[in-house]
Every structure is written in C-alpha cells, then in structure tokens.
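**Reference record**
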Amino acid sequence: MARALIVFGSETGNTRKASQIIAEAIEAKGHEVRMEDVQRVDTSILDEPYDLYLLGVSTWGAIDEEVTEDFKDFHEELASKDLSGKPMGVFGCGDSGYDQFCKAVDFVADRVEKQGAKLVLDKLKIDLDPANSREQVEAWAAQAAAAM
C-alpha cells in the first residue's frame, strides 16, 4: 500500500475541504493518506517516508505576499529544505475574480522545485468552494493516486 502526505493551510476552510476530498479519493484507490494542518507541523515532516507529498495552500484575495499567513513559516522553511527527488503535487483554493488567482499555488510549486522536488502532477487551482469543483478535484486526486 502506497502512502501519501497532505500538508495544508486553510484560512477559510476551503483548502481543508479540498484536502479531505483528495484524501478520500486517494484512499478509495487503496492508498493510505495522512493529513496535517500546516500550523501544527514544520518541514521536518517532509523527511518522513511517503510515496507522494501534497501541499495545499490558499490564496486570499489580491495577495501581496507569496502565501497566506498560516502557510508563511512553512514556506520560508522550504527555502532551506533539501527536497531532492521527492515526488510532490501542489493544490489550493482561491477566487478567480482576482488577477492573482491561486498565485500562492505557483509560489509554493516554484519553491519546492527549486529545492529539488519533482512535481509529478499539474498544479491544481480550485475556484472558491471545492465542493463546487468536486469532479475536478477528484480527477486530480485520481492522477495523484496513479503517480504513487
């Protein structure tokens, strides 16, 4: 049985919901999933052995910062983390009404790639409540399960 880790930050609850949908879809494919709130862990969790690492980050409005406050410390720690060869995917929720739609997803994906991670999935950008995009989220999760 393959194992996936989902570390998410969620200021409004949408990225938490997306994480749950993703976890359920991966588990339905027979894999084990561990979910962790980014505020309760640090980047040392990425040293633990998993077949896939998924990072979920939200974008709040027209952000000036790279990531929302809840993900900031983790994102900063990633800048000095060796992620060589780690299979990763990045997803998040935002509001397509802003020019910076899900921009935090791009910032996190760029950071982990610079640190050597291998993005094995396209970035997933979810508009607002993931329940309204459930098919899109589950399809991405199915790709994640297949990448394990």
Notes: The first strand starts at residue 3 and ends at 8. DSSP finds four helices and six strands in the chain. The longest helix spans residues 14-28. The beta strands are 3-8, 32-37, 52-56, 87-94, 118-119, 124-127.
